[in-house]
Amino acid sequence: MNSTATPIKITKPVPVFKETKQENGIGKKMKALVYHGAGKKLWEEKPKPVVQNDTDAIVKIIKTTICGTDLHILKGDLPAVTEGRILGHEGVGIVEETGSAVTDFKKGDHVIISCVTSCGKCVYCKRGMYSHCVNGGWILGHLIDGTQAEYVRIPYADNSLYHIPDRSDEEALVMLSDILPTGFECGVLNGKVQPGNTVAIVGSGPIGLAALLTAQFYSPAEIIMIDPDDNRLETAKQFGATQTINNSKKNAIERVKELTDGIGVDTAIEAVGIPATFGLCQSLVAPGGVIANIGVHGKSVELHLETLWSQNIAITTRLVDTVTTSMLLKTVQSKKLDPKLLITHRFKLSDIIKAYDVFQHAAKEKALKVILTND
Amino acid sequence: MNSTATPIKITKPVPVFKETKQENGIGKKMKALVYHGAGKKLWEEKPKPVVQNDTDAIVKIIKTTICGTDLHILKGDLPAVTEGRILGHEGVGIVEETGSAVTDFKKGDHVIISCVTSCGKCVYCKRGMYSHCVNGGWILGHLIDGTQAEYVRIPYADNSLYHIPDRSDEEALVMLSDILPTGFECGVLNGKVQPGNTVAIVGSGPIGLAALLTAQFYSPAEIIMIDPDDNRLETAKQFGATQTINNSKKNAIERVKELTDGIGVDTAIEAVGIPATFGLCQSLVAPGGVIANIGVHGKSVELHLETLWSQNIAITTRLVDTVTTSMLLKTVQSKKLDPKLLITHRFKLSDIIKAYDVFQHAAKEKALKVILTND
Amino acid sequence: MNSTATPIKITKPVPVFKETKQENGIGKKMKALVYHGAGKKLWEEKPKPVVQNDTDAIVKIIKTTICGTDLHILKGDLPAVTEGRILGHEGVGIVEETGSAVTDFKKGDHVIISCVTSCGKCVYCKRGMYSHCVNGGWILGHLIDGTQAEYVRIPYADNSLYHIPDRSDEEALVMLSDILPTGFECGVLNGKVQPGNTVAIVGSGPIGLAALLTAQFYSPAEIIMIDPDDNRLETAKQFGATQTINNSKKNAIERVKELTDGIGVDTAIEAVGIPATFGLCQSLVAPGGVIANIGVHGKSVELHLETLWSQNIAITTRLVDTVTTSMLLKTVQSKKLDPKLLITHRFKLSDIIKAYDVFQHAAKEKALKVILTND
Amino acid sequence: MNSTATPIKITKPVPVFKETKQENGIGKKMKALVYHGAGKKLWEEKPKPVVQNDTDAIVKIIKTTICGTDLHILKGDLPAVTEGRILGHEGVGIVEETGSAVTDFKKGDHVIISCVTSCGKCVYCKRGMYSHCVNGGWILGHLIDGTQAEYVRIPYADNSLYHIPDRSDEEALVMLSDILPTGFECGVLNGKVQPGNTVAIVGSGPIGLAALLTAQFYSPAEIIMIDPDDNRLETAKQFGATQTINNSKKNAIERVKELTDGIGVDTAIEAVGIPATFGLCQSLVAPGGVIANIGVHGKSVELHLETLWSQNIAITTRLVDTVTTSMLLKTVQSKKLDPKLLITHRFKLSDIIKAYDVFQHAAKEKALKVILTND
Prior knowledge:
Order of helices and strands of chain A: EEEHEEHEHEHHEHEHEHEHEEHEHEHHE
Largest interface: A-B, 42 and 42 residues
Number of helices of chain A: 13
Strand content of chain A: 15-25%
CATH topology of the largest domain in chain A: Quinone Oxidoreductase, Chain A, domain 1
Helix content of chain A: 25-40%
Distance between the termini of chain A: 26 Å
Number of strands of chain A: 16
Oligomer: homotetramer
CATH architecture of the largest domain in chain A: Alpha-Beta Complex
Structural class of chain A: alpha/beta
Number of domains of chain A: 2
Shape of chain A: globular
CATH class of the largest domain in chain A: Alpha Beta
C-alpha cells in the first residue's frame, strides 16, 4: 500500500470481504504481530491459520516487512482494521498447505505474496484492476489476517501468489509484494514516463524511491527528485536521480523551471499524500503532461482548474493492482532492477516490535525498508 | 472555445503572438463586431485585413457564430482581449487572397476556419497539441482580430483552414470551427468513451450537447444527461441521451447510482465549468473511470483525493486542439453526425448585435447556436 | 471459431488439455451430435456429462448453433478432433449443477457459453488472451465434448460462462458465444476501426457480416463489402454496408481506389481465409492502415513486402479471446447491436442433421446462422 | 533509409515531388558525389544549390555518411534515381541561407538534416507519418539532390532540420539523420518493446545494431541477436545484447526456444530484408507477439497464415518517419544513448570514393558507419 504522512479516511465503501468460515481456534499456535486498537500492538500467540476455502493456501513466512500503511493503521486511521487483526501485507514464504482448487502451487513452493488478493474472475480482475477485486483487493493485514506472522492464509492463491525462481535472492523479492509495483504502476505507468522525457518525483521516501528506480526502465532524460531531507536526496542521487531539489531550502518551482526551459515536467509523480505536495505537482507539470498520484491522501486538495483547464493535462490515481509483478520479477532476474537498494535494516521476525520502532523514526534512522526474517 | 458560467482568469502565460507588421489602415473598409471594453461592443467600420505574412490568407466570411467565450470577453473576464479587437473565432468563408507561402489554398476556395491557429512546425504542433502552438493557438478574436466581420486574416492558413467539399451544407460546417471538436476532443476522446460504456454529461448547453452528439460515434450503452433546465434535457433526449436527470429536482448522485447498479459511470464529462458540477463528476465516476473536463473554470475546485486516491481514475483537461476537424468532416459527409441540430437561430451578420442579445438569453430563447450570414 | 473455405492444418502445438478424470459412463443418458471420423456424424445417445473438477459446471443446452469450423471438422481437417467427440462450441443454457469451487453460478442460472474456455489464472488469461489459455482455449467440441447436445460440461465455469439478464432474447445471445466476438475482436478491434475511417471487409459470409455489424460501433464513414455473391452483398447492404462490390464481376481494387481517392482503406478485414482474399487485402490497404485477418487459413500466403515494407502498415491475426463478451452483451441490451439479424433458420435440436444439411449449402439456402432449440 | 541485402523494386507509386524551379546553373560551384547510372559514381563539380522555394534552406555540410540504400542506388535498384543525382540523405551542417518563409532557422545555425522531408501540413504529416508526406518523404539523394556534397538544399526546412545544442558532439549526431530513428521507430516502437520482455533481432548490421541500442530504452529482459557473422555478434554483445546466436552454425529456432521456455519472443525485429530472415522471425515470435520489419525487401515472402492465423500476432512495416528525432536527441544529451558506437571509420568528404569502397566491403573492413568530414 502507498506511503503517506496524513490520516486517511476512506469514505467510499471498501470492497466487501466475507470470511466464509470462522477461523479455527483449535489446533496449532503461532506468533504474530497483532493490532489492539490505536497505538497498541503486541507480538503474541495466535492460532495458526487453516485452509477455509478451496482456493486458499497457507504460507509459512520466510521474510516480511513493514509498510507506511501499517503505521497509519497503528495510529487508528483505518477503522476497518479491527482489534485482534494480524498486520502486514508483504512477504515471501513457503507454501505449507493448499485448498483443493489450488492447482498452480503445492507444498514446498517458494512464493512472493502479493499485497493485493485477486479472485481472477470478477469484472475488475478481468480488466486487470485487481485492486478493486470484488472478492479481494487489499485485504491482507486489513480485513483479514496478514503477513507479520509465522503463517498466513492467502485466499485465491493461484491468482495472488507468484513462484520464486530457483537461486533468487528472496530477501530482495519482498520488495515485489507492494512497494515496487506501487511505485511502478501508480507512478511510472500512470505517469507515462517515456524515453527522453523529464520527470519530477515529489517525495524521496521509500515509495518515491521505488518510482525512481522503476522510472529508469523507460530512460527518461531527467529525473528530478524533490524532498526536504538532504539524506533522502543523497540516496535518490545514488539511485539514479539526475537532479535533486531540497524544497525546504530552495523554491522547487523556480528550480524546475530553470531545469526545463520554463516549460515544466512531462510527468510529476506525487509520492507523499498531502495537499502541499499535490499542489507543487500542479505547478510543475508542463502542458500535455501527467500528474500521477501515488500518495495516500487524508484530506481533499485544491485543484487549480482555473489555470489547468486549458493545459491538456491528466491527473491519475491508483491503488496498486500488482498486475506487473511477473514483469517486475523478470526485470529483477535480468538485473535491470535491484530491489535490494531499498533495504536498509534487518531484524528477526520475533524482534518486530524493535523493527517498528526503527521504521517509525525512519528519517532519524535513515531507514527505507526493514526486513524481518522468520528463522 | 469552451462554454462556461464563470469568469476565467488565465494566470499561466498565454502563447505569445507577435504581429510582425502593423495592420494596414490604408485601403478598403469593412464592417465588424468590435470590443470596446467590458460590456461594450459595436458593429462598426474597420480596415479590411491584408496579408501580413507569407503564410496568411484573407478569408471573406460567409457564415459565423457566437461562442460562450465571446460573452466572457464582453464581461471583461479576459484581460488579454484589448479594446478595438474584432471578436469571433468560428466561421466558414471564401479565400480572398493568400500569402506567397500558402500552397494548399487559393482565391475562391470555400473553407472552414479553425478556432485554433496552428503553425505546423513547433514542438506542440508536432505532438498534435495545436492549442499550445507557440506561434498560434487560440488567437482569433482574442489576441488578433476575429471572424465576426466581413473579412478575417488567418495566419498559417495551410494548417488552420480546411477545404469544404462541393455540395456541402456550409451552415452546418460552422459547427466544425470549435464546438464539435471541443465536445469531441475534450469530452469524448479524453473521456475514452467506448462501446457498451456508461457516460454522464453534466451540463446540457451547446458544448454538452456537442459532446452528446459525438459520444455516439462510440456506441456507449447509456448517456445520462444532467442539467437543471427541463428544456435543455428535452433537447438532449432528442439528440440521443438515453437518460436525463434534472438535478434541480432530483439527487443526481442517487439517480446515477440506481442506473448503474451502484457503481457509477465509466466517463463523466464536465461541460459547465463551476466547482459544483466538477464536484458532481467526482461523485459519479466509477473506479477505473475518467472525468473529462470541458468547462472553462474561473475558480479552483476541491478535489477529493481522500477518497479518489485509491479509485484508479483519471481527470483530464484540454483546450481544444482541432486535430479532429478532418475526421469530423468525414463523419458529417457520411451522415454519422448532423451538426445542424445545434443551430436554433439565424441572423444577418449585420444584425449581430441582435443575435448577441438572443444568445445572452439562451435559456429563455431556447437558443443553442446562432448563425450569422454575411450576404 | 472463425469461418473459412479451406482446410486448416494446425502445425503449432495446440494448448494441451488434460481431462483429470475419466468421463463417467455410468448414469444418465442424453442425445448429442457425435463425430465419427471424416464425413460421419450421428445424433445419438451419450452419457450425460458430470462434474469432473471443482471448477466445472454442467449446463443444459437451450439453444445452440453450427459454425463453419464444425464443417471443417466433419471434413476431417482437424485431426485433433477424435472419433466419438460431441461437436459444437456455441450456445445458451441453464446451469444444472456446479463444482464446489464455482461461486458465481448456481443451478437455474441462464447463461451464455463462451466458445473459449478460460482458467483466469494462467499467464495468457492474465493478459486477456483467453484463446491461448494454457488450461483451456478453444476446447469445446474440439478437445472435449461440446454444445450440440442436451447437456455440456463447462470447465472453469466462473470464467467461461456469462449471466443472461432477465427478459433477454436468449436466441439472439447464442451469437455472443463465438461469431460476434470473433468479428469484433479479430476484425474490428484489431483493425482499429475509427470514426470517419474507411473499412473494406472481404467476405460477406456470417463472420464478415459479424464484423460489419460491430464495425458500426465506431461510426466509420465507409464500410465496403466485397464478395462474389450478390445475395450476400444484398444482406450486407441491409446490415449497414455503405458500398458493396461483387468481385466476380468487377475489379475490386479499381473500385476501391475510385471510392477512396486512390488511397485505399484504413482497415481491410479478411473474412474468408484463402490466399486470394488475403492478397486482395494487401492491394486495398492505405499507407498507415491495418489488415485484420479473421479467416482460418489452410495454406501460406504470399506477402508483398517488396512494396509493403515502406507502407507503415500492420497485419494482425487472432483467435477470438471472447474478452468482449460482457461488453457486447451491454451493446445488445442497449440496442446498439441486433444479433438476431444473423439468424436465418431455426430447427429443433433433434433435427440437427437436417440443420447441418442446410448450413452446408449456405449460399443456396441463403443461410447465415441456424438456431437449434432443445425443447 | 533501411539497410538491405537485396534489390528493391518499388512498384507502388512514390510520392510525387515537383521541383518548382530549374536548378540555377549560373553562379557558384561545389563538389558532390554524383550518380551516373548503375555502377557509376563520380566526385565532381556541380552548381552550388540555391533557394528555390520560400521554405527552403541551403545547408553547408559539415559531416555526412553513407547508407546501405546508397549502395542499392549504385547497383541500379532504384530507377527513380536518375543520372546526375547527388546522393546522400544524412548529415549535419550549418545553415547558409534561408527562404523568406523559414522562421525557425537562420544563417549560422548548426543543424541535423533529417533523411525525411516533411511539409508539416499534408494529411500524412498531421498524422506523424512524415515518410508519406505528399510534398516530401524520402526525397534527398533520391528524387532531389542529397547530402554527399559541400552544400545541400533542404525543402521545408522548418520541419526537416533540427537544431544542434551547443557543445554537442556533431559527428555523433549524424546518426540521428536516419539510422537511429529507423532502428527505433521501425524496430523498437513498432515492436512494442517493453520492460521485462524478450526481443530477438535478426541481422546484426548497422540497422540491427541501431535497434539494439534503442531497444534498451525500454529495459527488455533479453535481447537475442542473430547473425551469421561472429564479428558482428561480438559487436552486438558490446552494444548490450544479452544473447547472441550465429545462425550459420546453430539452429536459431531451437536456441531461441531453449532461451524462452519454448514460447518464443515477444518482439522479433527483422533487420535484413530477405525472405529467409523474415521467415525466421515467423518461427521465433510468441503468441501475442510482434514481428517488426525494418529490412528493405526486394521480393515477396511466404507468410505462414496456416499457423499464424490463430497466434494473435502483429506484423508491422514502416519507412522511418523521423518523428522521434527530437526525442532521440534528448536521450543523446542525457547520455542514455551513445550514437558514436556506430561509427567505425572516418574520411575527408573529398575521399568519399574511398569511403564507399570500405563501406561496400563492410564485413571484411568491420565497418558499421563511416563519417565523411567536409573541411
